[in-house]
Each structure stands twice: as structure tokens, then as C-alpha cells.
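Pilot study result, target chain (93 residues):
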Amino acid sequence: MTSEHRDAMSSTQLIDRECVRRLLEADRDDATLVFVRGECVVLPDAEVDEAHRGLIVARRDEVLAWVPAGQPADQLLDDLAHRLDNIVRDLGA
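Predicted structure:
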């Protein structure tokens, strides 16, 4: 994929690198990524109400399973954002 194509894709992505970074760096083990009203929100699982349970994109522990030890590189964060963006779109965002 060319950098121009990647730049064009990133402008239309619903989940971006910074959203993934916030999830991974959350100080709670039960951090959950939820897509609410057009934006990604990281909340403790207990704070996700029933109305938003269907909008859960991923949980921190699930995403950490895709990350090797150490600080993830920007390219990995972009790849994870792309995966999670596809999940958001499947949810109907």
C-alpha cells in the first residue's frame, strides 16, 4: 500500500492510531473501546450501559493479544486501527 493510499484511507477511518493508543495505554485492565455518536471512547467495562453494549468494538485484553511485548510501533497501531475500523463498520457505524 502506498503512503498516499494510506493517507486517503486514514482520513475516512472511524478508528485511528490515537484511539488504539488510548485503549492500550488505559490504566484499567477492563478498558473497553466503544463507538458512540461517531467517536471512539475508552471506558471501564462496568461503565458501558446496556444501550451501548452492542457498540463495543474491542476490549483492551483482546487487543493486547495482537501486540508484541514493548511499545508498539506506529505501523502496528495503524494496522490495529484498520482492523478495529472494520469492526466498527460491521457494527453499522
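One observation from the pilot: The longest strand covers residues 31-36. A full batch analysis is planned for the follow-on phase.
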